[in-house]
Amino acid sequence: MNIHHRRSYSQRSIVIGLIVLAIVGIGLFLYSRLSSTTDTATLKTTDKPTEVSEDTKPKTIQVHLPGADPIDAIIEDYNDPSSLWVVASKDHPLSRQDYRPDDLVFLKDDSRTDKSQDERSLREIAVSDYHAMMDEAKKLGYDLMIGSGFRSYNLQKLYYTNYVAKSGEAAANKYSAKPGSSEHQTGLAADVAPRSMECYISVCFGDMAAGKWIAENSYKYGFIVRYPADKTEITKYQYEPWHLRYVGIPLATALHQSNLTLDEAYPYLQTARDELIKSGKITVQP
Q1: What is the pTM assigned to this prediction?
Q2: 146 with 120: CB under 8 angstroms?
Q3: What's the pLDDT at 168?
Q4: Are residues 131 and 155 in the same domain?
Q5: Is 240 known to be catalytic?
Q6: In terms of Cα–Cα distance, which of 140, 148, 151 is closest to 107?
Q7: Which domain holds residue 106?
């Protein structure tokens, strides 16, 4: 091979080598960029918060009373005597006759000695709001006290038996609950009255300024007038402006807005209870 051919071959080899190096370099460069992009995308994906499907998010179960703002259902079995929303009535007697709350608190706003300490007691859950209501009433000039709070099954039986002996069963049933059907046994009912004893546990309390204030404002403290004058056919009891029932501020407000009694709200509470059971939030003993 002559010198010219050797020089030409050498030059071609150099050019080919440079081309190969260029291709390799470009390949490495592209691979590096691709790897960097992939890592960044992976990092971004990892850093992004995990989104929860609407179907898997925990849902708040609510009670929707007609004409009222919806309220969150409390996580309880409303058929249990200890439930804040239990309905005790002629149609719905308590499920346990021997029920006695284990959180009764003595109310120190009654200095009389002719009542048992039980009857001057309410469940702890109601006490703070009860005192707040009484304190506000007193500021306005209404000096009220509790006439009767918790009553045991046996005490209610004694009262009912005496009323029947005095007035007959038909008359007694209009104003006294049979034992096992009284709200007083829940520890959430309070008969309020003026300390002066004027219109004590009497319909005329509803005509007094104090009675009117209670009717218009008790819901703000979680209480309702349980047996209103215009709902006697529903409650199956005569008008009792003194008889208050604690259900908590949310439900009391919803009842006030809807103008429903607790009896009328019962189906809506049961719907919420069924949803609580279905969702597994509560279990109910058979």
Answers
A1: 0.79
A2: yes
A3: 96
A4: yes
A5: yes
A6: 148
A7: 62-279
- Interval 123-148: pLDDT, tens: 999 999 999 999 999 999 999 999 99
Do 131 and 71 share a structural domain?
yes
Q: Are residues 15 and 105 in the same domain?
A: no
The C-alpha atoms of residue 246 and residue 281 are separated, in whole angstroms, by 24
SS3 106: strand
**Would the pLDDT of 161 be above 80?**
yes
The answer to whether the CB of 223 falls within 8 A of the CB of 252 is: yes
Count how many domains the chain has: 2
Rounded Cα gap, residues 260 and 254, in angstroms: 9
Give the tens place of pLDDT for each residue, 34-45.
555 444 444 444
| Residue that wins the pLDDT comparison between 162 and 115 | 162
Q: Which of 51, 240, 264, 275 is catalytic?
A: 240
152: which strand partners? none
Q: How many CB atoms lie within 10 A of CB 218?
A: 23
Task: Give yes or no: residues 250 and 170 share one domain.
Answer: yes
Phi first, then psi, for residue 133 (nearest 5°) are: -65, -45
